[in-house]
Amino acid sequence: MRFETLSIHAGQGPDPAYGAVMPPIYQVSTFAFQGVGTPGEFDYSRSGNPTRKSLETCLAALEGGARGFAFGTGMAAEATVLALLQAGDHLVVHNDLYGGTYRIVTEITSRQGVAVSFADLRDAAALRAVIRENTRLIWTETPTNPLMNLLDLEAIASIAREHKITTLCDNTFLTPYYQNPLALGIDIVLHSTTKYVNGHSDVVGGALVVRDEALAERVGFLQNTLGSCQAPFDCFLVLRGLKTLAVRMETHNRNALAVAAFLETHSGVKRVLHPGLESHPQHALARKQMRGYGGTFSFRVAGGAAGAARLLGKVKLFTLAESLGGVESLIEHPWSMTHASMPEEARRTAGITEDLIRISVGIEHIDDLLEDLEQALD
Ligand SMILES: *Cc1c(COP(=O)(O)O)cnc(C)c1O
Fold first, then answer.
1. Above 90 in pLDDT, residue 376?
2. Second-level CATH architecture of 246-377
């Protein structure tokens, strides 16, 4: 079945108890055994819960993996997958990525005896140069947040396979609707379902989808052991969001392209970083690897820090807030907000400077969005 059908039906048959058409919220911690030594399908909600299973099955179907796992937040998914590593292992991370990922690998993973190397994974030679005998995991994110650089997932996965290294891709920005890392050879897909997958800015959540059953077994063990799973009510909300992912992503994509094209013509904007524009240096890779661009991108305003502050103070419809991927449009300043946890030097080296603005274009009417940005920039 196709994406739109799977998002509504995978893992979501009528409920066996009463035939409920939508998966009910099994708000329960424990389940009756049928007898001593004979648990039913579920025994305790940390280990498994029917509402969570519906969501996990649906996510696995959409990403094309053996199994899916739902977590309390995107960071809980990250903490769980990083627990695959042990002291003495080596982790390779792309050097331009979500601020929270930077924080967890530098403040926690590296303090647990795992060596962490940052490299520009756009460059295959840079990746080959950084791989060691003990490299266990390569962590990618594409497009990157907030700079919208792209990584060639097929190329990275093939280098990793030569060295038997597991690969992960944070697919939060594009969702399985526009990009399928597992089909390109990546082993694990990660999502902050807080963003587009849920899409309504009313829940935090995370997910992992694993390609191969043996690795999925290990991730399932970690989810149960660490207790990082998502609560039934939140799983229900994310599953409800998933049903409309296709129609939402089409609108996000269309609106964001129109906003990007408008910004490119405005004298108050120095540079638009959107992989769907011909001006993006990796536009060809975008067309090869992605089916669309989603709704989030960045741009550099004229006038540096003051120019950015002026624009952020003038917008009315775009809300000044962190996060992205909801139906409503948001705007933010990575330097002082989402990426403030990166050291100043690291931000500058990456190109996250004071003039950079990130927007998450929602699914409001495009003319209202353009009028708001126009009055703010003018
Ligand atoms: C938000 C985000 C995360 C972290 O997810 P939370 O749900 O906020 O914990 C990870 N990766 C990316 C790309 C994100 O945007």
1. yes
2. Alpha-Beta Complex (3.90)
